[in-house]
Specification:
- There is one protein chain.
- The protein is of the alpha+beta class.
- It has 2 domains: about 170 residues, no CATH class; about 80 residues.
- About 45% of the residues lie in helices and about 10% in strands.
- The longest helix has about 30 residues.
- The N terminus and C terminus are likely disordered.
Length: about 290
């Protein structure tokens, strides 16, 4: 969308927030809100729990009060999300470095949740201005400023769903700690006694390179299926023409296309070898029956 509000250095998750809001059909209402956001009309913005409280300067002498919130997830829902996050160390590393993992939305959707608003009814907002429209330009300005906050700190997005940065990181640490408790203790796998006192069985299989491809045991005939390839295309066709210099006569005419001649020869060899391999395999199969 060409008219989208895109300040410099907007992160993908912040831009995703803006795109979701604009997809609700509020483009005309949000047009003035973008101007308010750019001009700094949002005088203050703070969190009280999962709710956002802001003051936005309008045409009146006193700023209007804006409140905004999303439905917070329950403790049980957050438990499922944290468990999914803890299974991937990359999530903790990314979040600690101030980045939102690209696949973060998948973690929520796999648990039947949506991190971003799914419909416009998921957003609860109110403004003290006389404009009955929702969102008004003051609420819209807060939407855009929140996007800037998301770029600065991705945990702000989680706070709208009811969890602070400290709560999420602590829950991740506890979940990963519990997972490690169930991992086998590597010390229990150590050999008892000194290495000198250990006896090990001798290898019964020869490691001689000359015998690597030899198999002396009889094969089960029903497990051996020999069939021609499903396509006549060979690896030579995949690799393409061989870049050889053509043979040129004294008068400048081309005597022979060296590249095509080499390709034709290799194809004939390839075909002969393939046929011989099939015949050899069939003979071996017949002998084993």
């Amino acid at each position: 969308m060409t008219d989208s509000y895109q300040p410099p250095n907007r992160e993908w998750w912040a831009q995703r927030w803006i795109e979701v809001l604009e997809s609700f059909g509020w483009i005309r209402r949000l047009a003035r809100a973008r101007v308010y956001a750019r001009e700094g009309n949002v005088k203050s913005l703070e969190f009280k729990g999962h709710k956002v409280i802001a003051k936005v300067q309008g045409t009146a002498p006193e700023p209007y009060k804006v409140t905004l919130s999303l439905d917070p997830f329950t403790d049980e829902q957050w438990g499922y999300v944290i468990e999914s996050m803890s299974q991937q160390a990359l999530f903790s590393a990314k979040l600690l470095s101030g980045e939102m993992p690209v696949s973060i939305e998948k973690v929520f959707t796999e648990n039947g949740l949506s991190l971003f608003p799914f419909t416009k009814f998921d957003i609860h907002s109110r403004c003290s201005c006389p404009d009955p429209a929702n969102p008004c330009k003051h609420i819209g300005a807060v939407y855009y400023l929140l996007g800037d906050r998301f770029s600065e700190d991705p945990f702000v997005l989680f706070q709208l769903r009811g969890r602070t940065k400290e709560q999420i990181l602590e829950a991740l640490r506890q979940s990963r700690s519990q997972s490690r408790k169930h991992e086998p203790d590597i010390r229990s796998l150590e050999l008892k006694g000194s290495p000198d006192s250990q006896t090990y069985p001798q290898a019964s299989i020869s490691l001689s390179p000359e015998q690597f491809w030899q198999y002396t045991e009889q094969l089960e005939p029903s497990l051996v299926v020999i069939a021609p390839p499903p396509s006549s295309e060979t690896v030579l066709d995949v690799l393409g023409a061989i870049p050889l210099k053509p043979d040129i006569a004294e008068d400048g005419s081309m005597v022979q296309d060296s590249s095509q001649a080499a390709m034709d020869y290799l194809k004939s060899v390839y075909q002969a070898v393939s046929q011989q391999a099939i015949l050899t395999g069939m003979n071996v199969g017949a002998e084993s029956e």
